[in-house]
């Protein structure tokens, strides 16, 4: 066997392999030997089936198995020999020549590898840490949010207000009065400015004060293109809206009953719990800000080429994640999809930063001998299982099946490396301004 490696792009290589007829024949002999030892055939004992009969019946399948084993084994032997760290799924090219017993065989493999670069001085990074203390106003604001989160939709007799959720009947009519689209009995979140599949400017003002049984006509020009319903694109229509009922989020009263329903014995216990919860949240936010500063430092101070295929895959992942989030928030699929190109440029920049910082953190982890134990992986699986409401054993099986244990290990390794950098950093404690703290 011989091979030649060439650079075909940033962090991307191609290996050209030439296998002799001896290499090929040895692989065929190995596979035939394994099959002949185990296969049963009429008139022959197991292990005594002539190779010619096996070849006649299973020849095509055997060639496929030999090819897969031969290419894979040859490639990974080369990787070990050259001490290369591949980061992408290798792409194989057989050059159009069929694999045959006793004949030479050539193929090529394209793959991406980790870049080589120098680390900046990462001990003593200057960081600013926001230090916040929990004040009474924080508890009051959190209490308001908690009451809001326990609010229930209730029918009210008054007219529509900006934050209401009225049940509406919609008929979309053209200039002749023909109904082109309708939707009856749907809940409208007025503050979003959306009514069914239409975005309407100043919707809350146009619906304000309307009571149950009342109606309103809104002149509306539909955008072009209009992916939610292409046949309506560019049309001038009237949105005829009838109010079925007016529903409003009504918050519960803050009293002993509310506190007891949350599982607390007294208001003092309740507030003490809120205080501890806020202290943890402030610490979490503060640490997240330190992490962002570390990311920015490594992004700015690490100079390296990046593997384009890996960056592209990660950018696609970021775009799709954003689109799925929009869909979960109620944006129609076609409308969300139309934003894909808009998100791509930002996603590419973000992907490059993520990939670069990921390489840097991994290199620091190796240099500092940051290790992840099986116990830490098990603890993280227990934590994730609790969040998802499933058994840890079930989640582990799922992660192993999807080959995601390695990703989980890398995530924990990155977190430990960031903790190490924070520990070694020069940290200046600052008090955030009022507006920043509020945000």
Catalogue the unreliable spans: none
Provide the number of structural domains.
3
> How large, in whole angstroms, is the Cα Rg?
32 Å
* Shape, per Cα inertia axes: extended
- On the 0 to 100 scale, the average pLDDT is 91
Question: How widely separated are the two ends?
Answer: 63 Å
Into which percentage range does the β-strand content fall? 15-25%
Q: What's the architecture of the largest domain, going by CATH? A: Orthogonal Bundle
CATH topology of the largest domain: Trigger factor, domain 2
How does the helix and strand content classify structurally?
A: alpha+beta
H/E series:
EEHHEEEHEEEEEHEEHHHHHHHHEH
- In total, how many beta strands? 13
The tally of helices reads 13
CATH H-level superfamily title of the largest domain = Trigger factor, C-terminal domain
CATH class of the largest domain: Mainly Alpha
- Percent helix range: 40-55%
Any overview of this molecule?
- The chain contains 13 helices and 13 strands.
- The protein is of the alpha+beta class and 439 residues long.
- It has three domains: 2-112, Trigger factor ribosome-binding domain (Alpha-Beta Plaits), CATH 3.30.70; 152-250, Roll (Chitinase A, domain 3), CATH 3.10.50.40; 267-438, Orthogonal Bundle (Trigger factor, domain 2).
- Strands 6, 7, 8, 11 and 12 form a five-stranded antiparallel beta sheet that branches. It has a four-stranded antiparallel beta sheet with strand order 1-2-4-3.
- β9 (194-195) and β10 form a beta hairpin.
- The model has no long low-confidence stretch (mean pLDDT 91).
Features:
alpha+beta, Alpha-Beta Plaits, Chitinase A, domain 3, Trigger factor, domain 2, 3 domains, five-stranded antiparallel β-sheet, four-stranded antiparallel β-sheet, 13 helices
């Amino acid at each position: 066997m011989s091979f030649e490696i060439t650079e075909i792009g940033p962090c991307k290589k191609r290996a050209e392999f030439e296998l002799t007829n001896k290499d090929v024949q040895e692989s065929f002999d190995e596979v035939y030997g394994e099959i002949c030892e185990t296969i049963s055939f009429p008139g022959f004992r197991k292990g005594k089936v002539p190779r010619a009969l096996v070849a006649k019946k299973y020849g095509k399948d055997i060639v496929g198995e030999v090819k897969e084993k031969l290419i894979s084994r040859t490639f990974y032997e080369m990787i070990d020999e050259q001490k290369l760290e591949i980061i992408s799924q290798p792409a194989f090219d057989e050059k159009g020549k069929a694999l045959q017993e006793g004949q030479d065989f050539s193929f090529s493999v394209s793959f991406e590898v980790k870049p080589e670069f120098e680390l900046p001085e990462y001990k003593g990074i200057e960081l600013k840490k926001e230090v916040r203390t929990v004040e009474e106003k924080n508890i009051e604001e959190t209490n308001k949010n908690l009451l809001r989160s326990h609010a229930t939709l209730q029918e009210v007799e008054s007219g529509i207000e900006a934050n209401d959720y009225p049940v509406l009947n919609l008929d979309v009519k053209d200039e002749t009065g023909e109904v082109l689209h309708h939707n009856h009995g749907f809940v409208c979140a007025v503050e979003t400015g959306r009514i069914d599949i239409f975005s309407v400017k100043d919707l809350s003002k146009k619906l304000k004060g309307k009571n149950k049984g009342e109606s309103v006509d809104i002149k509306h020009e539909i955008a072009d293109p209009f992916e939610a319903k292409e046949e309506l694109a560019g049309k001038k229509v009237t949105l005829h809206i009838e109010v079925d009922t007016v529903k409003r989020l009504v918050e519960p009263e803050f009293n002993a009953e509310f506190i007891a329903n949350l599982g607390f014995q007294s208001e003092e216990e309740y507030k003490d719990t809120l205080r501890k919860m806020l202290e943890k949240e402030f610490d979490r936010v503060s640490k997240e800000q330190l992490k962002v500063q570390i990311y920015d430092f490594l992004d700015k101070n690490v100079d390296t080429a990046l593997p384009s295929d890996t960056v592209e895959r990660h950018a696609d992942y970021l775009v799709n994640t954003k689109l799925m989030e929009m869909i979960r928030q109620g944006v129609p699929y076609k409308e969300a999809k139309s934003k894909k190109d808009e998100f791509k440029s930002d996603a590419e920049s973000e992907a490059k930063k993520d990939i670069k910082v990921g390489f840097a953190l991994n290199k620091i982890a190796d240099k500092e001998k940051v290790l992840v134990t099986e116990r830490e992986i098990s603890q993280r699986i227990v934590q994730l299982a609790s969040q998802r409401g499933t058994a840890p054993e079930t989640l582990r099986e799922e992660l192993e099946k999807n080959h995601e244990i390695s990703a989980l290990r890398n995530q924990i390794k990155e977190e430990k490396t960031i903790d190490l950098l924070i520990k070694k950093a020069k940290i200046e404690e600052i008090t955030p301004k009022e507006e920043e703290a509020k945000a």
